Amino acid sequence: MNRWDTLRHHHAEVRDRAILTLFDDPARAGAFSVDADGLLFDYSKTNIDVSGRALLIALAEGADVAARREAMFSGARINETEGRAVLHTALRNLDASVIVDGQDVMPPVRETLGRMEAFARDLRTGRARGQGGRITDVVNIGIGGSDLGPAMACLALAPYCDGPRLHFVSNVDGAHVHDVLAPLDPETTMIIIASKTFTTIETMTNAEAARRWMASKVSDTGRQFAAVSSALDRTSAFGIDGGRVFGFEDWVGGRYSMWGPVGLALMIAIGPERFREFLKGGAAMDAHFRSAPFGQNMPVMLALVGIWHNQICGHASRAVLPYEQRLSRLPAYLQQLEMESNGKRVAMDGTDLVENSGPVVWGEPGTNGQHAFYQLIHQGTRVIPCEFLLGAQGHEPDLAHQHRLLAANCLAQAEALLRGRSLDQARAIMAAKGLSGDELERQARHRVFPGDRPSTMLVYPKLTPFVLGQIIALYEHRVFVEGVILGINSFDQWGVELGKELALALEPVLKGESDGAGKDGSTLRLVRRLRGEG
Ligand SMILES: O=P(O)(O)OC[C@H]1O[C@H](O)[C@H](O)[C@@H](O)[C@@H]1O
After folding, report:
1. What distance in angstroms lies between residue 407's CA and the mean position of ligand 1's atoms?
2. Which protein residues touch ligand 1 with a CB less than 6 Å away?
3. Which pLDDT belongs to residue 94?
4. ipTM tops 0.95
């Protein structure tokens, strides 16, 4: 039996055992959780037991996670389909040297960070001015990895945002750029165009729209544009002065890029010192990931719990449920991080994947989700493993009672998933309400919660820049470990290409410049409807 089969065999043996019974062992909670620099990952409310964990760890060992991990950190070209190293970790590990092709890549990284800091400081202090005075607003135009990270983080760290106001434009829908720019004054606005490739159609189209908007009121538009990219020839062709261009290398993947120049918007919002705290949090998680034994290694265990639920138990989706309003964009950020990284159907060597690819990741902050989709999580016919995130403290001391209520709700949901409510308990509730006979039975059945539904919880002290850095690096490494175990290259994204190519070909059809020969009947009919031709 190979390791996967052994795990499946083990699962078959334990699947009917209620998770709650595992807590007969009073040491269960402590033994099935991992601590790392103030973070606590509790996976005790899952059906993983001592032997299951040992088998999962053996799976990771057998996949050579440790060797791949070191290959990544040391700059080997592990992104084999694109022939690139994967070194986003270098952006937050500023004291070390990282040698790629015989060259230390760190001096330019530090130099760019220094320039970003000077630029951010100038904007924050008012030294760098727009043509109508101090810069009050900064607009980041980017999409995917050039948007989701800084947008998520600016919201997450709102209590630390004391610089110019930040705004984000991503969608090619003109409504987005229109609605964001409409209330702003071009004379006091700085636009950052963030695009690794500087070819992404959404970003370049929005950048042109912003330039026209700027030109309506400002004579020297170039002065109020900055760019973040790894294609410096294209930024200068767009007319952005090299002094306001912040470059990075192709070994930083788009969805892993917020630690470097793509984080410029965040740095402007929270200031260079706090941005360094964010980097330190990421670096602390890197150090933990590289040194902790697998059983006590948070990213490794997070990944193994994911593999257990998805590939072994067959639960195809996972809900990410932050009990922290400011993490409301975390699920969207993780959707790109996880689904673009591990949503692949072939292995690194081009052969068909033997196991399923990564799960569908989705979610919303609690408690809002409780009043919307938790119904299905509790009583739907499919099991959805839930990943809760909760801070021990909020940032509003005057509203500490609300934070307590928030925490109570989070713990209560995990408990409800674990415990459920039996038919007998539901009957007793209905009897207490005065029901009897068939009506009692019918009503009681609607009030049964099967329970025995797995969840994990990540507890952090408080959502500071350092802690956010830890959490994001934790998720990055989780994706890496899952990818290695599945044999996937987590660092390419060929699956986004086809739609882009077809969109380019369809635009002239919509415009009426091309007849759309070769298109299917549905597409052509929809084109006619959109053109008002029937
Ligand atoms: O930063 P850019 O080059 O503009 O790319 C923006 C995004 O678009 C692409 O289609 C990829 O799917 C993403 O991984 C990337 O983050």
Report:
1. 36
2. 143-146, 195-197, 200, 203, 254-255, 340, 493, 496
3. 87
4. yes
